[in-house]
Amino acid sequence: MATYCLTVARLQLALGQGVRRLHVSAAFNAKAKVSMSRFEPSNYVSYEKLNENVNIVRKRLNRPLTLSEKIVYGHLDDPVGQDIARGHTYLRLRPDRVAMQDATAQMAMLQFISSGLPCVAVPSTIHCDHLIEAQIGGAKDLARAKDINAEVYNFLASAGAKYGVGFWKPGSGIIHQIILENYAYPGVLLIGTDSHTPNGGGLGSICIGVGGADAVDVMAGIPWELKCPKVIGVKLTGKLSGWTSPKDVILKVAGILTVKGGTGAIVEYHGPGVDSISCTGMATICNMGAEIGATTSVFPYNHRMKTYLEKTGRGDIAALADDYADLLVPDPGCEYDSIVEINLDELKPHINGPFTPDLAHPMADIGATAAKNGWPLEVKVGLIGSCTNSSYEDMGRSASVAKQALDKGLKCKAAFTITPGSEQIRATIERDGYSKILSDVGGMVLANACGPCIGQWDRRDVKKGEKNTIVTSYNRNFTARNDANPATHAFVASPEIVTALAIAGTLDFNPEVDYLTAANGEKFKLEPPSADELPKLDFDPGQDTYQHPPAEGGSKLRVDVSPTSTRLQLLEPFDKWAGGDLEDLQVLIKVKGKCTTDHISAAGPWLKFRGHLDNISNNMLIGAVNIENDGVNKIKNQLTGEYGGVPDVARHYKANGLSWVVVGDDNYGEGSSREHAALEPRHLGGRCIIVKSFARIHETNLKKQGMLPLTFQNPADYDKIRPDDKISIKGLATFTPGKPLSAVVKHSDGSKDDFQLNHTFNETQIEWFQAGSALNRMKELQ
Known about the structure:
This protein is α/β, with parallel strands linked by helices. Helix 10 (246-257) packs parallel to helix 11, helix 12 (303-311) packs antiparallel against helix 13 and helix 15 (392-407) crosses helix 17 (434-440). GO terms for molecular function: 4 iron, 4 sulfur cluster binding; aconitate hydratase activity; metal ion binding. It catalyses: citrate = D-threo-isocitrate.
């Protein structure tokens, strides 16, 4: 875009020699000039540069490379000098582009505005998908969202125009589907402010979920840091067939690796079974890789990706990818840190849950397991779509099941909702008759948005606290995530299985063997679903929902934030490190068990405050379980002796000059990429989070905001901490990479404990802590 060219010199003056030089065709694509997307005709696919860097690294390491290594190392800022050791060193990378969904884009753009930079340095986009609540149907829900979120949408549109960021309007679709249709391609490195960004791995991309502060770094032209990932290989043999779908691959993998088994690793699928999976099916698998904690997931370039690129108007990229096909697959003889093998011939349909996405059950077993555990068998609602499963093929396979029921005079016994992934999918399935079939069987087509998957669901069929079961084709099923009801048992399956269960109305229905009763009393079995991978005709693009940044640049445009707004708030810099140890931090809460980013910063109705740090902080840790009383949002204020909500007590401590610490369990912060889960503790006076282990994105987000994420050197030391303790963090004057810090714990009875705390900070990240945040450090360097 012309905007980038206007700002190169100013960016280099502001940030020195570390500034990214723009993607220009002369430097990157001597062989062919192929645009990265139709929206950025002057930014080109850079396979020649990627290949050059890969050759440098391969020669240095003197070994074959996995596909993920090729793409990641191929984007190194310094391929000649970068220290590379899987699982140990930090890589400095140059991503090709940035994508932000509207809930996280608010804080990302507020941080970018605070940086003082005039324009983004790489192609970047904002996608309006998170703020549309499912209530009565797509068109009306969208109109309502546009009205109540007008202030936020106007802010994002105007900020995008001013700073050179493309803007996808509300109704355009879910960010990950839009990326797959327009921006992902084999070999690209993309970061996105959403944990399911890895969806793009289905098109041979390395797409990584990050917090907004990481996105700001890349948009500012600063090298982005990532701990060198390990590589888990998943070898697929056999072929998918019958009721077994791509979703079942990742449901099976989640059961094997668990919610933290992929932490610090890229999952790389390979083997002869890959070719039996469609491109969008591969995207489904990569999307839900977030649920095993993986940095991202990726598939090798093949003919299924080529066909998808051609069908989505990117045949020129497909042709160029063919020329570089050897670059876009793993080297023969490459080695993985570990390997999981799955025979697709033997894989059966799965359903995972409730309350965690790694509790895997074959469909044949779920009925008995549910009865044994007292899980409700009646399916109240079936929900298909979401960023994980809303492709043309997904909708077609679901319609195939629905059509069989309709032909026998049946409709869904459960309520049934359909979420198209994009405006293009919505328009195409409407044209091709899928929407009518799904509606006729009893379904309600929702807006092209995240909706119930992220808790944007005005559910009214059950009361809060009422035990019930829902089945979805979504990715996450944490407690209360979809409908704010902690008693809802949410199960995750493929869209065709969800459709079958919605028709049957019961969780113990296995469509492979069980019979339904037709309207005329006949018993019949559903045949395995079948559908086209892609439409026979071209996709119908539907309405044009994209706003280009102005070609002349945005220097004359204004972005206003009202000081009285309850939705948006300009950011104030966090305070710098004072130079000494952190003394007598009050334990705010000792968290018991699973604590996801949903527990730390709930979504649903709170999404409306994502651009206002003080208001969104009123949800901090309100879902976390207090080990003292097994309650939620009920902790003792050690200054008053009274019990109150977690944010209220934190505010009271801050007002009285008392800094605090949170103590947590394993895989703390798993789930969403939302950096609000890091911003809120910092804003309310927190200085440190001490846990047994962290999820990757949340640990990085905490570092970015000047917090200290630390882990017990001995996990058993978690048991030594009491809810009313004060903890001092020692050793900060000599804070260095690889050197543990120490904790001195003062108990209320006068006794003490001390132990070692590990950290993963590198030198740059220690500078963030000392400056008060990564954004503060960026300003210091200008």
